[in-house]
Structure to design on (69 residues):
């Protein structure tokens, strides 16, 4: 009976450690998701700024009629 009790205790300890590890991983995943969202917003903002700068710097071709008109 003592051997069975010891095995059950070991399994309960293992389950407790696994539950703690899962909780820690879940917290890290939430932090990583928050960081990814911040970076995604920053990249989108930078892309918009680069697009606006590109439009401002790129010369527009003059609209001229072809020579046959």
């Amino acid at each position: 009976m003592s051997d069975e009790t010891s095995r059950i205790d070991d399994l309960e300890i293992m389950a407790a450690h696994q539950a703690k590890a899962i909780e820690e991983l879940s917290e890290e995943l939430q932090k990583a998701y928050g960081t990814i969202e911040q970076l995604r917003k920053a990249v989108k903002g930078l892309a918009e700024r680069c697009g606006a700068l590109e439009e401002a710097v790129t010369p527009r071709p003059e609209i001229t009629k072809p020579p046959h008109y």
Q: What stands out?
A: DSSP finds one helix and no strands in the chain. The chain has a mean pLDDT of 91. The longest helix spans residues 2-57. The two ends are 105 Å apart (CA to CA).
